[in-house]
Amino acid sequence: MSAEVAAEGPARVPRDPPRTLDIVQVDAFTERPFAGNPAAICVLDAYPDDRWLQAVAREMNLSETAFLRRRRDGWDLRWFTPAAEVDLCGHATLAAAHVIFQDRLDDLPELRFHTLSGELGARRDGEWIALDFPAEPARAGAPAQGLLEALGVRPAEAVFTGRNRLDELVVIEDPARLRELAPSMSGLRKIGMRGAIVSSPSDVGEADFLSRYFAPSFGVPEDPVTGSAHCCLGPYWSERLGRPRVVGYQASARGGTVRVTTRGDRVELGGRAVTVMRGRLST
Asked: Is 0.85 surpassed by the pTM of this model?
């Protein structure tokens, strides 16, 4: 989410926003309502002023609101948290693909999305949707100053620390410790990155690893299920476990499952999604 955080204070909404539009709320990386990560999806004929897009995202108050616009060779896709536009988002891309497939907005077997992180893909995989995303492996290195303290992780607990262009990654060995972490959000706002991923081996069913994700600087204290974080987690756990396909469970209050297959500089993120609400956006 390497974008500027919106300035504090009342939003400046343009005088002539788009006409009344449909908006769909989808729970992503889950097969049941009220779990996974919710995203709002809005299909536009054209993108209005960015201030209007940001105002809608603030109004929806979800970790992500996605705006789609059809183009000749696919779809333009943009993602906004309540505070800022972001460069990469997995769960809202999954939700967008779910809406397109469900509402038959496109008859192609594979969707192409044009985004701030380049071209992304989505295709049906039985009851799942498979996303084609860039791999974002973490480079090993010392953690950002104050990161471990903000997370509540003791230095001796961290078996790996590193970062990619988006996030800090900290790996610990005890899943019970991962679940009980209660990070300082004010401390995490100072690390200078989009957010922080904490991961551990799994104590859940089919999952190979657990994770939690925190991005308070972008209006998301704890994200329920973070697809883009798995662009980092997939390569790490694939190398550690010695196989290209791994399964992650994000151990947030809502929880959700992500299948990850690493293929060189790309990852395939697999997830399910369910529509929970439809409405009309009036301005």
From this structure: yes
